[in-house]
Design goal:
The protein is mostly beta strands. It has one domain. It is 1% helix and 41% strand. The chain is built from 1 helix and 20 strands. The strands form 5 sheets. It has a 4-stranded antiparallel sheet, with no helix packed on it. The protein has a 4-stranded antiparallel sheet with strand order 2-3-4-5, with no helix packed on it. β19 and β20 form a beta hairpin. It starts with 9 loop residues before the first helix and ends with a strand.
Length: 321
């Protein structure tokens, strides 16, 4: 079962919602993990074996249960990802099983700076896909320059049409210079709406997490106060919302290479202190940095797609419980 990415509609999305199952395999009620609970499977992106690898690095995995919504998909599951460095470019891998094998789709990149609407940006990256049941289409969020989060739409999950701007840094306040690395999901406090977690860079240079809300996936209204504020001189990014047996959590990474989990209410307000989920040295293949986790529960097993490796050399990797 894929929950957050494949919500049939905001009203239905919270029925049976399980976004991260981080206890033992087969657990019906998964909980947030502790370091050491995950088994590394493999690195999924080998630049030497990919037709599209302009910079040799990839970030920000986003998984869509294509078989649940699309007509004649290339595989049961779609995995979107992108290079971080210029020129970026949203790419796609497909698989019939979450454990793989994962195969690059033809025609990568799906979204690039070749689009006339993106001619002024240096790169496109950080894809995040959701299913819009109202319009029966995939809506994919991404950034092109870190000060703007954009969206595009597709009927088949592969051929995208330009949409528009979801969030500009200026929408978050005069002190903001970045609004990127967005994750979007049905609003846990309002079944008729959507929520977004976005990375904001402030005038101090630190990066924190802000919450925005929308009723149509196009127009977004920010909450006044940030949700996650790191210690001075540090940054956080890649935040996701997950509902588990032990409550609602926002999981994210910080600049020490670890993944953290913050307990939150359905209104996306912190209810306690953050705790470590994946330690920076837990997955040796990741060279001291795990980031941008994308958890998927299927048939009682947790699969965690993540950004694995140091910044600007990272790859997409997979682990499970």
């Amino acid at each position: 079962m894929r929950a957050r990415r494949v919500a049939a509609a905001p009203r239905l999305a919270l029925v049976g919602l399980v976004l991260v199952g981080l206890t033992g395999c087969g657990s019906a009620e998964p909980r947030l993990p502790s370091p050491g609970d995950l088994t590394f499977v493999s690195v999924l992106t080998d630049p030497d074996e990919l037709d599209y690898a302009p910079t040799g690095e990839f970030i920000f995995p986003s998984v869509l249960h294509a078989g649940a919504y699309l007509d004649d998909p290339l595989g049961e599951w779609y995995l979107y990802y992108a290079p971080h460095e210029d020129p970026g470019g949203i790419a796609l891998m497909v698989a019939d099983d979450l454990g793989g094998p994962w195969t690059p789709a033809p025609g990568n990149p799906l979204i690039s700076t070749d689009w006339p609407s993106l001619s002024a940006v240096s790169h496109v990256s950080s894809p995040d896909a959701v299913w819009d049941a109202v319009h029966e289409q995939v809506v994919l969020f991404f950034h092109g320059e870190n000060d703007v989060t954009r969206w595009a739409t597709s009927r088949d999950g592969r051929t995208f049409e330009p949409g528009g701007v979801a969030v500009r840094a200026s929408d978050l306040g005069a002190q903001s210079s970045e609004a990127s690395y967005a994750r979007v999901f049905p609003d846990p406090a309002d079944p008729d709406a959507w929520a977004m977690l976005v990375m904001e860079r402030t005038s101090t240079g630190d990066r924190q997490i802000r919450v925005l809300r929308s009723v149509d996936l196009h127009t977004w209204v920010p909450e006044a106060e940030p949700l996650v504020v790191p210690p001075a001189g540090h940054s956080v990014s890649g935040a996701n919302w997950v509902r588990l047996a032990d409550g609602d959590w926002v999981v994210y990474h910080d600049d020490t290479g670890q993944v953290l989990g913050l307990p939150v209410s359905s209104a996306l307000r912190a209810t306690g202190d953050a705790r470590r989920v994946i330690g920076p040295d837990e997955l040796p293949a990741c060279d001291g940095r795990a980031a941008a986790p994308e958890p998927v529960v299927d048939d009682g097993r947790l699969w965690v797609f993540l950004e694995c490796g140091q910044r600007l050399t990272a790859q997409i990797a997979l682990a499970h419980d």
